[in-house]
Each structure stands twice: as C-alpha cells, then as structure tokens.
C-alpha cells in the first residue's frame, strides 16, 4: 500500500518524469496510430522506428552528446527519409508497399546497428546508454526529456485537431479528396511527419523494436469498441495512457522489470480483452449473436414443420411426437428438443403426454413463416426462372431474413 500511494501521488520527481513521460508518448502515438491503422499503413510504424535508429547514432556522432533534442532531430530526419524512400520505391518501381517497407526496415536497422558498433569502439564516455534506444529505458527519463515529450505531444495533438477533417477524408476516401482538389500530397506529407514524430518521442522509453506496437495496438483495441472516429481516437489515447501508467507502476514495483516491454504487454492485454469482450464487435458478442440467430432459425423451422403437418392432417392443433417430427424433417434429436423447449417457454407450443402441439400464437407464427417460404419460391419461379432443384433450398435460407416490408412488396408483386 505504501508503494502504491508513493507511486500514484507522484511525490518523487523521478517517478513523475517516468509516469508523465510514458503516458504522453503512449497517448500521442495512439492518436497518430488511429489514422495509420485506418489508412492500412500499420507496417510503416515499424519501418519508421527502425529507420530512426541510424539518425540517433548519426546525431550522437556529430554532437558527441545524448541531448534529447539533438537525438530527436536525427531520428526524425532518417525516419522521414526512410518513408520518402518507400514512397519513391512504390511509385517508380514494380515493388509493392509491403516489400518496400520490409526492405527499408531491414537496411536501416542494419545501418543503425553498424553505426552503434562504431560508436561503442570510440572513447567517448557519453555513449553509455545509447543502446537503450533499442529496447527503451523509461526509468532514464529526466526533466529535460519530459519537456521535449510535452512539446512534441502538444504539437501532434494540435496538428490532428487542426487537420482532423482533412485527415479523416484522406483516410477513408483519398480519391474523393483528390477530386475536390484538396492538397492531398501536402496532407500526406504532414501525416507522414506526424508518424515519424510519434515514433521519435516514444523510442526513448519503449525502444525501437517495440515502438510499432505502441503506434498500432491501442488503435486496434479501440476499433472493437466503436465505429465513430472521434471516440476511437479518444479510446486509443486512453488505452495508451493506461498502458503507460500501469507499465510504469509494474516497473516501479519490480525494479528489475523494464518499463517498455511491460507497457507493450499491458496494451496487448487490453487489445485481447477488446477482441474477446467488446459489446458489439468482440468475439463473444459475435458468438452470442450467431447462437441467437441459429436458435431463431431452428424455432422457425420447427413452427413451419408443425404448420405443414397440420395442413396434411387438416388439423393445425393436433399432437405430434418427436419421432413424427423427425420423420418429416431431419433435425438432430438434441437440437429438436432444445427448440421445442424454447418454443414452449415462448407459449408457441403446448406439451402434454410426450407430445407437442401448436398454440394459437404458434399456429399464426408457423403460417407466417410458411407464407414467406412460398412467396419466395413463387418469386424465384416466376421472375428469376430458377431451376426447380434449387428453389426449395434457396427459400429455406431466405425465409428467415425476409422483412415485413419485403413480404408486403412480394405480396403486391405476386398478387
């Protein structure tokens, strides 16, 4: 409890720098990552992060210091050049985007590793800690780092807010944006710069290798919760901030645990929770909707079966055993019992003496389903000239999705 209070009150300046710094970088990256995800350019984040590494090494070699501003300028420059080279490769060769991105990713990271080896063989003592940019070291964030992170994060936020409509349009319909003479190339340039900027501010804490996850994962998690872009951006920023906060807390409780990997693990856990439990797009919600739909089809098929048997016998309220029902339609016994019990609970069937019969409401519902089936069969025969062998099977599928409005139109059309 003492450690918990000490951490969340942010009384220690070192804790304050780490927590605020990681929350700033994760939320800023998540905002930019939302548009990156929608533009289907997720791999660009990984390429940019790796391309920033040579810039960090070059900046250190030129200045002899690890000042965050100098290193940020170097990382931004090489990261942006890499994205420019990817664009040139795509436009002026037969190389596709994924291949060009993978190519630049490997080459730039190799160059960065080579430059780091050269630096490590020099006598400059300031080189210590430079390799932390590979995997990140949030615990090393200082006040000057926090100032740079704050300025760059505010710049990203203001740019996104100021160009929100334009970014939205080119993310969803770039061709339309070009047709109304929007300056798409300039907007793409600005957006590319934001990607690089988000990467630059994050690699100090999360590292080059893991930074792509911070760019894309919060946005991917937010996508499961909403279809509105503004809410998606807000949720992505929130998920990023939460992962930064909790990752820092775990690292504080266990000093041997690196902050960057824990941030990535937490945001990945949020993504998996979203994937499983999001109310509309989550896997469990989809499975539940699928189960309800299958149960609805089963119940409608059983009611139609009772109605058709009633037509044959001339008695819609006659009793039927499960064996008789299965003789008329091949429904597995366990599924049939499940459907019959559900219909009894809905007061559409009545059960007595191991036999079942329709109630008044059940008869009306069975008649409605049979009518939809026969209307569609007639429509297929009369207007679409479908072969008889396919008519019944097609109607078996369509009868469950015909709306009252379509049924009304079919009645009018077929007289």
TrEMBL record:
Subcellular location: Cell membrane
Keywords: Cell membrane, Membrane, Transmembrane, Transmembrane helix, Transport
Alphabetical list of Gene3D superfamilies matching this protein: ABC transporter involved in vitamin B12 uptake, BtuC, Winged helix-like DNA-binding domain superfamily/Winged helix DNA-binding domain
Nuclease found in the keyword field: no
InterPro entries: ABC_BtuC-like (IPR037294), ABC_TroCD (IPR001626), Fe_dep_repressor (IPR001367), Fe_dep_repressor_sf (IPR036421), Iron_dep_repressor (IPR022689), WH-like_DNA-bd_sf (IPR036388)
Membrane topology according to the record: Multi-pass membrane protein
Protein name per the record: Iron dependent repressor metal binding and dimerisation domain-containing protein
Phylogenetic classification of the source organism: Bacteria, Pseudomonadati, Bacteroidota, Cytophagia, Cytophagales
